[in-house]
Amino acid sequence: MKVGIFVYFIPIGKSGGVQRYSEQLISALGKYSNIEVVVFCAPQNKEIFLPYAADKVSIIVLPKRCKYLRVLTNNRYLRQSPFFSALTKKIFYNRYSARIMDWLGDYKHMIEKKVDVIHFPYQVLDRYDFSIPTLITLHDLQQKYFPEFFTKDEIKERDTYFKKSAELCTRVIVSFEHVKKDIVNFYGISPKKIDVCSLGYDIGPSMDTAKFPEILKKYNIPEEYLFYSALTWKHKNHINLIRALKLLHNKYNKKIHLICTGAKSDFYPTIKSEIEKLGLEEYIIFTDFLPEEEFLVLLKKARLVVVPTLYEAGSYPLMEAMVYNVPVICSNVTSLPEQIGDERFIFDPHNIAQMADKMYQMITGETLRAENIENSKQQIKKLEWRNRIIDFIGSYGQSLEDFKIKKIII
Description:
With 410 residues, this protein is an alpha/beta fold. Helices cover 48% and strands 14% of the residues.
């Protein structure tokens, strides 16, 4: 079986956990499976995925032309209309136009020539006309729980394409049982079509922390700091974290800095305004997206990692802290308590006083810090990819069986 992972439209540093999910999955498939993997990336993001090339993992860099052709093949009106979809297929996918479409950058043809199954490691199918089994990873239905974080158009678009993609793909992969239940309840998708393939994590190569002073100087960071890595989306809850930091300074007289990494979204000006309102400009640094080497060194050297998100279908920053033996606390939402595995290290993300108190305990309590690290060591054993990747392989195999049955029925 040859499996394709389509990452062409994942921009560097702007996709949050989706990028990390894709990288980790590709790496794990190469290390712990016997299947052949073909990664379809773009010229603009190939630097992320080329390092994962191995004996069983090949990287194909699709041409830039693909993104222009996508304007037609991915047109929302064509995708939503059975009539226009059929008409487009007849015009552009016949024996006369095949070579032209290949030249134009038709990734459908390119993919179908190379693999038996194609997996989109994000919420939607980029196109609905594949002649091989397709899978998506539907990470969450956050808009159902926090509609206030989206515009009406964004909610409509998410529901339209998430639901349509879940209906038309061969199988749906999710990371946690609660996401599966949401898809069944909100979209009416059969639970038999949804596979829970849990997140995994493997520690990378040994880290060179000798560059730590150089990195601190580069970003003007002090030696002691709290650390949070997330794009500045509303649900990542930077606002309450900043307010908790202010309380930590005032109530506990612990004047520690906060370092936030990750790309800045349209919500960042609101966060910046809150920082200025609370007079914390001197103590909070947003570095934007960092190279992985710098990111991991800053993570490793942090006094404490805090994950205050309001909604999360699994957190890579949490797992990374656990893997690298950094004290970490997180909010008590969705799957995070299950990931961290000890209620002493969770807090209500809406309760600023509780968050500040938990931060103070973890910064100053050496015994608690040691117990936190030991807890992480035990939890991370369950998260090793060698124990998780079999579920993905099973889902790929099942998609082939489902596709065969569907073709027989049709």
